[in-house]
Amino acid sequence: xxxxxxxxxxxxxxxxxxxxxxxxxxxxxxxxxxxxxxxxxxxxxxxxxxxxxxxxxxxxxxxxxxxxxxxxxxxxxxxxxxxxxxxxxxxxxxxxxxxxxxxxxxxxxxxxxxxxxxxxxxxxxxxxxxxxxxxxxxxxxxxxxxxxxxxxxxxxxxxxxxxxxxxxxxxxxxxxxxxxxxxxxxxxxxxxxxxxxxxxxxxxxxxxxxxxxxxxxxxxxxxxxxxxxxxxxxxxxxxxxxxxxxxxxxxxxxxxxxxxxxxxxxxxxxxxxxxxxxxxxxxxxxxxxxxxxxxxxxxxxxxxxxxxxxxxxxxxxxxxxxxxxxxxxxxxxxxxxxxxxxxxxxxxxxxxxxxxxxxxxxxxxxxxxxxxxxxxxxxxxxxxxxxxxxxxxxxxxxxxxxxxxxxxxxxxxxxxxxxxxxxxxxxxxxxxxxxxxxxxxxxxxxxxxxxxxxxxxxxxxxxxxxxxxxxxxxxxxxxxxxxxxxxxxxxxxxxxxxxxxxxxxxxxxxxxxxxxxxxxxxxxxxxxxxxxxxxxxxxxxxxxxxxxxxxx
Length: 552
Prior knowledge:
The protein has 24 helices and 15 strands. By secondary structure, it is an alpha+beta fold. The strands form five sheets. A five-stranded mixed β-sheet has the order 1-2-8-7-5. Strands 14-13-12-15 form a four-stranded mixed β-sheet, sandwiched between helices. Strands 3-4 form a two-stranded antiparallel sheet. Helix 21 packs antiparallel against helix 24 (530-550). The chain is extended. The protein starts with a helix and ends with a helix.
């Protein structure tokens, strides 16, 4: 390619507004036993064109890059080069000079022709699995026209000829075969590709941009070509039913869940040298993604059932977002517990060297800090009880930010209002009971513990906790509140309930099992349905009321 383009490995071709260069390998290493090859090359700084276009919204700046890419493509065509892996991720843009330099790479599948590419060869390249399709993942149809003269409206939909391309798109063939259509004309091929384009190009909804082709790429990578075909059919139906955006959101969320799970698994395996690490725990999330695509695919021809299933899955997407957060944060809780001791050592050292005034009576850690489950995105939850606490709070905040790079969040407790605040805000009960005492005067340290113990043995207070949640549950229908309420009940059962309360506990367990809610706290391997949620909410209210009667 260097010879054909007329420059050496380290030289550039200079145009009026930009330069072109190649990223050439220094060596190619073969591992025949694994049928694997590696190329080694010098590191090339810069951003990929994909990164630039995903971040850049200015139309003039985008058009500048499109004009340059079109000129590069023409240069390659005119020199008899068909760059078969032409994609924005394979173009690195160095913007450190007066004009940008585009470094192109990844040529192992490229064709070197004896002369300039013909119009037929150019047309087939543009409509192949790369080039226009790869750019179409992040560019609009109008932008594809700017870069490639790619205009699906000009395609012949009535042609009875056979497909003239040497390598037609395999995903279109797969869709035809999935529809039991084993013979088709070029016109039918063109029509199907037009339809597929509509559900692959970026879509803007409520000032948010969605990239459906990225979903397809990922599904193809993780689940295989057949699920890519199914997802494309699902997107086609969703677009026809005006449900395209809700479906994209659901698939994006499940993909995020899967990728978080894979990353967490790999991270745990790297960090856990001695501990047993279950392998491929992300298989559960892979199966969940398969289940959703399979169900949507089976309902793709029934608008009513498709719509109902989307409503269940979408569920205002609150639960699915919690689902992702659960696995991305709590899914890695084992490794966070293993590494908590290292963070805790630094944290305790911070508090050890602070200068406490006589006004400070108690400092304790709560939330994840108290449970020993800090994640990299955690705040350090601190309660400072005493008078004139602003100075010590600033000192804690500055030191923790400097040493650990973590934010500090303070509980709104003071010396005067500590007990009253907990009584009037029972949602803080669990945090206080699980606190980790950092600093205290002799009397105040035992005071915090006694306050927690007193709360758990104070039936009047426990009834107040229940009344607080009952009042909120009856007024709101909020998933987060429901799960928080259930968590409180579970905690109260675990910490307080004696042998005489087994009947209530058994009743509650039965409800948990019947609604699969128990699994939320263990594998989170299910999705709430709206009616099911309402039933759980009603059962939770009944349990609270029964529990309150028991505390009389």
